[in-house]
Amino acid sequence: MLKIGVLGAGHLGKIHLRLLNQSSKYELVGFYDPFEENAIKIEAEFGYKKFDSIAALISAVDVVDIVTPTLSHHDCALEAIKAGKHVFLEKPISNTVEEAEEIIELAKKHNVKGQVGHVERFNPAFIAVKDQIQNPMFIETHRLAEFNPRGTDVPVVLDLMIHDIDAILSVVKSKVKSINASGVSVISDSPDIANARIEFENGCVANITSSRISMKNMRKSRFFQKDAYISVDYLDKICEVVKMKDAPEIPGDFDMILQNAEGIKKQIYFDNPNVNANNAILDELETFADAINNDTTPIVTLEDGTEALRVAYQIIDCFNK
C-alpha cells in the first residue's frame, strides 16, 4: 500500500484527506497546512496526523498530493520530486507553462510519476461516452457557476474553463490551429465570463463558454460528429447519444426517418449508455496508485495538464489584444 501525504488542507484538501483515509490503495500518513490554527483544528477533529513542515511530510511518504493554491504548486512539486516522490497535482498543474515544463523535466530526471487533477475525465457521464466520441468536428460547452469568492483570484479560464479545455484536448486528436476569445470582468479584477473559439488543424471547432456569476449552475458539453450527436451533463451525470444510420427499406411505425433534398433517407436512433455512479475524486487518486504500482501511464499526465494550461493562457492572451 502506497504511503501518501496531503499538502494543503483547505476546502478541497479536506475532501482529499477524507477520501484517501477511506482508500484501500493508500495509507494516509498525514498532512501539512501552513495555517497552524486550521491544521490543529483538523488534526483534533478528524485524527489525521499534522506535520510541522513540508519537508517532514515528504520524507514520510511515497506519494505527495498537492492541494495547495496554484501559486505554490511548482515549488511543492519540485521539492517532492527531488526527494524521489510521485506527485498528484490539483489543476491547474502550475501557475505558468514554464513552471509546468520544469516539473515535467524534473519528473523524468528522477523517474517519478505525476498526475494532474482534471477531475471531469473521471466524471461517470464522460466515461460512459468517451469511447464513442470519434473525430468530433464541432464541440460546444457551457460551464456556468453561481458566484463564489473562492477562486476569483484567477481568471475564470483557469478557474472553470480549463476543465473543458482538458476534456476537449483529450478527444480531439489534432493540434490547435488558432484561438479567438473574449472575456468580461464584472465583479473581479480578472474576467468572470469568457468565451473562446478554438480551431484545430483537422477542421474541428470548439466553442467554450464559462461564467462564475450565473444565476444557476450548468456543466454541459455537446459533441457533433459524422452521423452522431453526443451530449454530456457533468453536473447531473447523464449523457445522451443520438445516431443516424441508413433507413430500412420498410420503416417501422415508430422509426424516426429524415429525408434530404437528394432523397437519401436516414434513421435517427437513441443510444443512452449506462452511467455507473462513482466518486470522481477518489477514482482519479486511485487510478494514479494503479499507474504507480503497475508502472503504466497516468490517465491525466503532467503533459496533459501542461497542454491544457498552455491553451488556457492562449485564451487569456486574446483578452488583451
UniProtKB/TrEMBL annotation:
<dbReference type="InterPro" id="IPR055170">
    <property type="entry name" value="GFO_IDH_MocA-like_dom"/>
</dbReference>
<dbReference type="InterPro" id="IPR000683">
    <property type="entry name" value="Gfo/Idh/MocA-like_OxRdtase_N"/>
</dbReference>
<feature type="domain" description="Gfo/Idh/MocA-like oxidoreductase N-terminal">
    <location>
        <begin position="2"/>
        <end position="118"/>
    </location>
</feature>
<dbReference type="Pfam" id="PF22725">
    <property type="entry name" value="GFO_IDH_MocA_C3"/>
</dbReference>
<dbReference type="Pfam" id="PF01408">
    <property type="entry name" value="GFO_IDH_MocA"/>
</dbReference>
<dbReference type="InterPro" id="IPR051450">
    <property type="entry name" value="Gfo/Idh/MocA_Oxidoreductases"/>
</dbReference>
<dbReference type="InterPro" id="IPR036291">
    <property type="entry name" value="NAD(P)-bd_dom_sf"/>
</dbReference>
<protein>
    <submittedName>
        <fullName>Gfo/Idh/MocA family oxidoreductase</fullName>
    </submittedName>
</protein>
<feature type="domain" description="GFO/IDH/MocA-like oxidoreductase">
    <location>
        <begin position="156"/>
        <end position="216"/>
    </location>
</feature>
